Amino acid sequence: MSHPAVRPVPRDDLRALEGYHSPQLDVQVRLNTNESPFAPPQEFLDRYSSAIRDAEYHRYPDRGAVALRTGIANSLGQPSERVFAANGSNEVLQTLLLTYGGPGRIALIFEPTYALHTHIARLTSTTVESVPRADDYTIDSNDACARIRAVRPSVVFVCSPNNPTGTVEPQASVVALADAAGEVGAVLVVDEAYGEFADHTALDLISDDRGIVVVRTYSKVWSMAGVRLGFCVGPAWMIDELDKVVLPYHLSTPTQLAGIIALDYQLEMLQRVAALVEERGRMYAALQSTPGVSVVPSGANFLLVRVHGDGHAVWEAMVDRGVLVRDFSRWPGVAECLRITIGTAKENDECVAALLAALDHVGVIS
Ligand SMILES: *Cc1c(COP(=O)(O)O)cnc(C)c1O
């Protein structure tokens, strides 16, 4: 007698989980995932190709990624013991949560923010406690510190510049949050995926006597979303713990090489960032004078726009006109909002034209 097979079921606490989706459509202008519109410099591509051709693939990669971590540290004026690298900053966030979150522990998150903070917390069985941001999307630091003292989380996430709003947290507010986190022994994770687009950074606050860690990525500012490389900067004792948790040899030889060689093109990277910041200013002005929407000030490579009407219908009408932006219209805290990644000047002009036509088509303006 054969019995029907019992289909294995995932962990109970994963049952309510939905995967992370960012819909991709084949359109002319793609301004939906905050990538850079510029490819990396040609010289970087040439050197990277010859480096990966010459690498020894029968050997494991450098487990400690020493050259990469030292290079990143030097570029930021930090000691190399303070740098940890992984496959995208999402793996950095996962490693932080595997180390400091987990069953019976709480992660405090200020919403609306990057969905993966909550998603990865759930994957690691960390309880999520969300605190709403103020109407202008900043964090009310008095209220936030009171919540930290009351909830006693193990991890506090601050995304600055915040995705999807672009809001940059004032440094004084980050310091206050770090102090409150320090009182209860929580790690303060400052997600600076867009840090280079803003005018200040929490990197200045890293020290050996507080549990603050800044997470960055090659995906956005470095034009290298396809490589999957991110890192964090924190006190050496925290980095030691992350090294114990992450899988051995997690960073492949090609990934390490990409990160090391890219560091030689920091100047080009900063020039691209400056060009995008200038385009952001131009787009902000254009969107401010577009009827039927309001635009949120941003320190990142994207702008959040609130449609004074049916945001989803406007998003669809833009797709029909060949422009894909990110639809947040049904998200709590950012209802009717669309997020527009800053692209090339031409893409941005096409985006504004499509938005205007879509607003008219849907009847938000007439
Ligand atoms: C894009 C983004 C990341 C990046 O993730 P990678 O895994 O490095 O590509 C991390 N945090 C925020 C807030 C982001 O928007």
Break the fold down into its secondary structure elements and pairings.
Elements: E1 29-30, H1 42-54, H2 66-76, E2 83-86, H3 88-100, E3 106-111, H4 115-123, E4 127-132, H5 141-151, E5 155-159, H6 171-184, E6 187-191, E7 212-217, E8 230-233, H7 236-245, H8 253-262, H9 266-288, E9 293-295, E10 302-307, H10 311-320, E11 323-324, E12 326-327, E13 337-341, H11 345-362
Parallel strand pairs: 1-11, 3-4, 3-5, 5-6, 6-7
Antiparallel strand pairs: 2-8, 7-8, 9-10, 10-13, 12-13
Helix pairs in contact: 1-8, 2-8, 3-4, 5-6, 9-11, 10-11
The quaternary state of the protein chains shown equals single chain
Shape, principal axes of CA atoms = globular
Termini distance?
72 Å
How much of the sequence lies in strands comes to 15-25%
- Low-confidence spans: pLDDT under 50, at least 5 residues? none
Q: Tell how many strands the DSSP assignment holds.
A: 13
Gyration radius over CA: 21 Å
The number of helical elements comes to 11
Bound molecules: pyridoxal-5'-phosphate
Q: Give the rounded overall mean pLDDT.
A: 96
* Helix-strand pattern: EHHEHEHEHEHEEEHHHEEHEEEH
Strand order of the largest sheet: 2-8-7-6-5-3-4
